[in-house]
Amino acid sequence: MEAHADTTTNAGQLIAAGGRRRWGDRIFSNVSVAAALAILALLAGVAAFLLIQAAPAVTAASSELPGGKSLIDYIAPLAFGTVLAATIAVVLAVPLAVAVALFISHIAPRRLLLPLGYMVDLLAAIPSIVYGLWGIFVLGPAAVGPMEWLEQKLGFLPFFEGPASVTGRTMLVAGLVLTVMILPIVSAVAREVFSQAPRKLQEGALALGATRWEMIRMTVLPFGKSSIISGAMLGLGRALGETMAVTIILSVSGIVTFNLISQANPSTIAANIALDFPESTGLAINTLIASGLVLFAITLVTNLIARAIISRQNIQ
Amino acid sequence: MKGPLRAFYIFFTFPTQAGNKLFGAPCECGGKLAGPGPLLCPNDEKEFELSPSRWLAILASLAVLAIGVSACGSSSDDSSGSAAAGDLSGQIAGAGSTAQEAAQEAWIAEFENANSGATVSYDAVGSGGGREQFIAGGVAYAGSDAALSTEEGELEKAAKRCGSGKLVEVPAYISPIAVIYNLEGVESLQLDPETLAKIFNQEITAWDDPAIAKDNPGTELPDTRITPVNRSDESGTTQNFTEYLSEVVPSIWKYEVSGDWPVKGGEAAQGTSGVVEAVTAGDGAIGYADASQAGELGVATIKVGKEYAEPTPAAAAKIVEESPEAKDLAKSPYMFPFELDRKTESQGTYPIVLVSYLIGCTKYGSAGEGELVKGYFEYAVSSEGQEIAAENAGSAPLSAGLAKKIAPAVEAIEG
Questions:
Q1: Segments making up each domain of chain A, as ranges
Q2: In a mutagenesis test of the A interface, which of B2, B5, B53 is the best target, namely the one with the most A β-carbons within 10 Å?
Q3: I need a labelling partner for B353 at 20 to 30 A (CA). Which of A155, B84, B145, B205 fits?
Q4: Do A166 and B282 touch (CB under 8 A)?
């Protein structure tokens, strides 16, 4: 018994010695296990709720659904819009976030480090409705001119086909606002890893005559590559589910198009639920919930991919 | 991965994490760590085994959590209390139309001021939701942009909800819907229904179109592109606007009438404020919104008969007064569902209006509840109540004739 305890752990000893008096431990561990299980139960409950509530819409005849279209025809443009808006945000945010992270971790003067870090994190603290209002009152009107320019100069690309919106409430502007919103998450993840890049390698590179950019390119970026990817995935997850900002900004039209600067844009799943739920009843609500189920699935897959990338890096 | 990053990762990724890392399978316990190590490492296999008593404790903890959650969601009370002499008391709840929300808020504030013991609440869940909750008995009254319909047996179910009592349905909120536009250099704009429909179904795409010029002799129209703005959310305003178009010019407006905007490719904005904002922002934009919200924007006059009508409160109230009642939707003598005569050519009327109803019963489970509903309805349709709604929500007060017509319905509610 004693030998056993020595070779493995002295926990048994402690428990034997302390006996039943260690109530604090037991309560703490029971409560924490219960809390962990509660999260699982909650998640299962949400999934079950979505499935049960979506079922009537899945089985109903398409003529009974809102718009008289089949469920897939109803959700597909929304899913397209959701992914499009989130993709714009990630494509624009990742380079920006990496640059911000590199500046903070390797370039900024030491006394600027903390305030800068806080500022970036503060971006995440701004409520999304405020971003929405900013988008509609400031960024949208300001983007009208540049979007007309895009239409004239780059109109041959399907993205800038136009005609450019006169109000600025377009997919491009919604994507830009989402970019700002996910910037803090992506840059925080990248910053954290960049600052942990092996100092020896960095010093070695500099000692061999590398410029600062070459040092970063050869040591820091390869080290942080998978963290950039996983940060991008986390950002993508947020952009996919973002509701209020998109609801306010985007001029939605239920169509599928890659044209980013016109007044007619596909809606996103979350924005569509927010817009239509207040006046919906019966089967229309089931249909909205079915679209929510699709969003749930999309974010789940995104998260799983992020996890897979992170854990692959951990093994390496 | 260390420190904050790990916290991030755990926070934002899936909680199944708990299975492997968080609870730390490779936890460096026992041999390696001295001192308090084992205490920090509760997942020592022996300790972590879930014995029956342990399960009980966990379940108990879960139960406590669950009770905590459900306590927050406990349902509202029914109305109660008896009326003190002259002063109403107790509480009632209503739900429904978002269009009525501002008016309801104003009515409730004044009503509660006058009856210190009374509490009225109104949940703007939307017209359909309000009717549904009323039928289910969840609320004492509903506010609805549409009269109770025969669809899916709604009328029968509503009648059943009132038990031995009768249904009451009175118009209480009338709002003209204005066609607002933003076009540089054009101070006034006249449109006939055909042109209006063609603008909104995107057949007419430029402001200097001959069809618009024909309605506006003497006005210099620019060649600006037209940006029609519609509501992106489902709304009674859209419903009434499209109803007008499809009744007056069915050959041009071939879409089904619904609260969802049917034409694709236009500019869409959330809520009345969103539409007003979008029209304000875009040169060449045209939209529709409650007349009271038009602000500084240009308001188009609409051709009715031979004249062009303005969306004034008086003109809106007049068309409701002149419209016939929809007899087939009136289940009781106390229901006044109107079939708006949008094709009217009568002068001084404005045909694009939204009419919103108050729906209740003549008899409730308790006399106190009935008394309160009666008092509240009376106040809402009174000239004072209508004035306050006009002030706060920009609605058009009921005309004297209409108010007189519906008075017996409110009177019939048993207190």
A1: 1-59, 64-315
A2: B5
A3: B205
A4: yes
CB-based contacts of B331: which residues, under 8 Å, 6+ apart? B148, B155, B158, B159, B166, B167
A147 CB burial (10 A radius; 0-12, 13-18, 19+): buried
Fold of A64-315: MetI-like fold (1.10.3720)
Residues of B in contact with A133 (CB under 8 A): none
Scan for tokens 């250099």, then name that residue. B185
CB of B1 within 8 Å of a chain A CB? The answer is yes
Say yes or no for a CB contact (<8 Å) between A196 and B2. Answer: yes
* DSSP run (H or E) holding B95: strand B89-96
What pLDDT is recorded for position A309? 78
Phi, psi of B353 (to 5 degrees): -130, 160
Work out the number of other CB atoms within 10 angstroms of the CB of residue A194.
23
> Which range is least confidently modeled, B72-81, B153-162, B222-231?
B72-81
For position B259, what pLDDT does the model report? 83
Residue B161 amino acid letter? R
A19 contacts: CB under 8 Å, gap ≥ 6:
none
Q: ∠ CA(B290), CA(B293), CA(B297), 5° rounding? A: 110
Taking the complete model, does pTM exceed 0.80, yes or no?
Answer: no
A214 Cα to chain B: minimum distance (Å): 24
> pLDDT of B215-251, one tens digit each?
999 889 999 999 999 998 888 889 899 999 999 999 9
Q: Which ranges of chain A have pLDDT less than 50?
A: 1-8
pLDDT category of residue B351 using cuts at 50, 70 and 90: very high
Sign of CA dihedral A42, A46, A51, A56: positive
CA–CA distance, B209 with B206 (Å, rounded to integer): 6
Q: Tell if the CB–CB gap between B15 and A39 is shorter than 8 Å.
A: yes
Q: Is B3 on the interface with A (CB under 8 A)?
A: yes
Contact yes or no for B267/A263 (Cβ under 8 A)? yes
Query: Can you give the pLDDT at residue B49?
Result: 57
- State the ipTM, two decimals: 0.73
CB nearest to B264's CB, from A234, A255, A279: A255
